[in-house]
Each structure stands twice: as structure tokens, then as C-alpha cells.
TrEMBL record:
Annotated TM spans: none
Name by which UniProt lists this protein: DUF2461 domain-containing protein
Length: 225
């Protein structure tokens, strides 16, 4: 059975974990964690079910609580958030969805986190040629109301081979093309959060449709699939 809300108990557990981020405490409270993990995974399944009405989702993934500390200065063994991602189906549907739940820092993220160098070059060439449609989509008032401005890391001046004086250099500089929507704890724990997640993911579609079109064609608009 899917779950339509996030419980306050799950957030209380994550708060306790952040104060007791060690193996002894975690092992002692593992049954409680497993119950919360199962409930949140069920919520993610509800998100996926809702999305099936307006997108094709290949798979839902829930991330493990264990941190990879091998190359990190922070040696705490556990994450203090619960997160999941949703992958779109096939080579023709591009973009990804992410949900991150933690007291004081919950968010949804969508878009293109780390496009491979071919995809990044293709996006930049499109923006160099004509960024007007891209700007129209991300500037549409109902879209901006939900998702705000484009986020993501950027190069400092211009990528190699691109003109730093180009009028759309602010977009061409981007290395990531993501949108982030933050939520308060009150919003996450409310009855309407599931609906709000679905509304947000549904609203990103014009952006995904445009980017899928760009990434599955060449600069002449011919399919490369």
C-alpha cells in the first residue's frame, strides 16, 4: 500500500540521528529507522504513481542512508536525510527528478545535474544559436512561480570555443541546468505535500520537452536517435 504523507516521527528520527551520528546509536535504533525508511519509500511510490499520469517513469530509486566516507573529510557514517530519484523512460525522454527530505532543508530538484560532455556541448550550441525559446519556457510566469530561476554551477568566463561577449553567455556558461524548489518542514508534513510534489513535477514538463527535443536532434532539428 502506498503512503500519502510524511510523518513527523520520521523527521524527529532524522533530528536524533544528526545528534547521534554513530554506529552504536544507529544499530540500537535500526528497527525504528527501517520502519521510517519503509514509510518514506512508500511515499516515493505514491509520487511515482501520480507521475504515471503525466510522464513515463522507468524507475524510482531510494538512496541508502549510509555515507561513502572514503574521500570525505566528514567521517560521520550516516546521511541525515532521506532521498529518492525518478528516471524517465528511454533515450527520447531526458531530464531527472529528485526529492530530498530533511528537517530544515527539504527540496525538490529537477533537470540536468551533470550532463555528459556531448549533451553539454549540444545544449550550449543550441543556446548560442538561439536561446529565445529556452528563455520563453523558463521565464513563463506560472513556471517561475513554482520553480523560480535556473540553478547550477557555471564556468567563470566562457566555455572553450564560445564567445564571452555572446548575449546569452549567462546561459552558455552553465555546467548544470537544474531547478530547485525548497519546502519548510510544515509544508513537507502537511496533508497536501504529495499533491504539491506532483504539481511541481508536472510544471517542469515544458522544460523537459524542450530539452528532450534539443538533446535528441542535431542543430538542423534532425533526429539523432
Amino acid at each position: 500500500m502506498s503512503n500519502s504523507t510524511i510523518s513527523k516521527d520520521a523527521f524527529d528520527f532524522l533530528k536524533e540521528l544528526s545528534k547521534n551520528n554513530n554506529k552504536d546509536w544507529f544499530e540500537q535504533h535500526k528497527p525504528t529507522f527501517k520502519a521510517h525508511e519503509k514509510a518514506v519509500k512508500s511515499f516515493f511510490e505514491s509520487v511515482k504513481n501520480n507521475m504515471s499520469h503525466h510522464d513515463e517513469i522507468e524507475k524510482m530509486k531510494m538512496f541508502r542512508i549510509y555515507r561513502d566516507v572514503r574521500f570525505s573529510k566528514d567521517k560521520t557514517p550516516y546521511k541525515t536525510h532521506l532521498a529518492g530519484s525518478f528516471s524517465r523512460l528511454g533515450a527520447h525522454l531526458r531530464g531527472g527528478y529528485y526529492i530530498h527530505l530533511t528537517p530544515g532543508g527539504s527540496l525538490l530538484a529537477t533537470g540536468f545535474w551533470n550532463p555528459n560532455k556531448e549533451d553539454l556541448f549540444r545544449i550550449r550550441k543550441e543556446l548560442e544559436m538561439d536561446a529565445s525559446e529556452f528563455r520563453d519556457v523558463i521565464g513563463e510566469p506560472s513556471f517561475k512561480k513554482i520553480w523560480g530561476d535556473l540553478s547550477g554551477d557555471a564556468v567563470k568566463t566562457a566555455p572553450k570555443g564560445f564567445d564571452r561577449e555572446h548575449p546569452d553567455i549567462d546561459l552558455i556558461q552553465k555546467k548544470q541546468f537544474v531547478f530547485i524548489r525548497k519546502f519548510s518542514d510544515k509544508e513537507v508534513l502537511s496533508e497536501s505535500f504529495l499533491e504539491e510534489v506532483d504539481k511541481s513535477y508536472r510544471a517542469i514538463r515544458p522544460y523537459f520537452d524542450l530539452m528532450s527535443d534539443i538533446l535528441t536532434t542535431n542543430l538542423n532539428g534532425e533526429s539523432v536517435l
